[in-house]
Amino acid sequence: MIRITRTLSIADSEIQEQFIRASGPGGQNVNKVSSAVQLRFDVVRSPSLPEEVRARLIVLAGRRISQDGILTIEAQRFRTQGRNRDDARVRLVELIRHATEVPELRRATRPTRASQRRRLESKQRRGDTKKQRRTVAETDG
Fold first, then answer.
1. I need a surface site. Which of 50, 54, 108, 134 has the fewest CB within 10 A?
2. Domains of the chain: which residue ranges?
3. What's the mean pLDDT in 2-6?
């Protein structure tokens, strides 16, 4: 059982791990040992996730989630299989924990009169600076 928050946890059976060969550090060992971990979690069919968390997780996962709704996390930062496995699980927990946070709704507000005035003044100053940089055209005379 993987604990996400006090009220949310995921069963180990919902996670599939596959060990693959990693690129990167490891010397000759990297060619013969499958130390990288590819963790898969079916977001769409998971009975553990509430519907609103599921929707936010799909958005947060971005390109790490397939069309079928399977979240894939690859971990190959470390040289050992165990540390990569722990790293993948920690990253999954952090992602789901982030999805449990309800974002604050932004209330549309109008800019204050003073901020509008400051903005227009700064635009005027910027325009004056650019005018000063122009070359002066010679007049026939």
1. 108
2. 2-100
3. 80
From CA 21, how far away is CA 81, in angstroms rounded?
10
Cβ neighbourhood burial of 92 (10 Å; 0-12, 13-18, 19+): buried
pLDDT for the residue numbered 69: 83
Q: Rounded mean pLDDT of 55-78?
A: 86
**Does CATH number 3.40.640.10 belong to domain 2-100?**
no
What whole-number distance in Å separates Cα of residue 71 and Cα of residue 17? 12
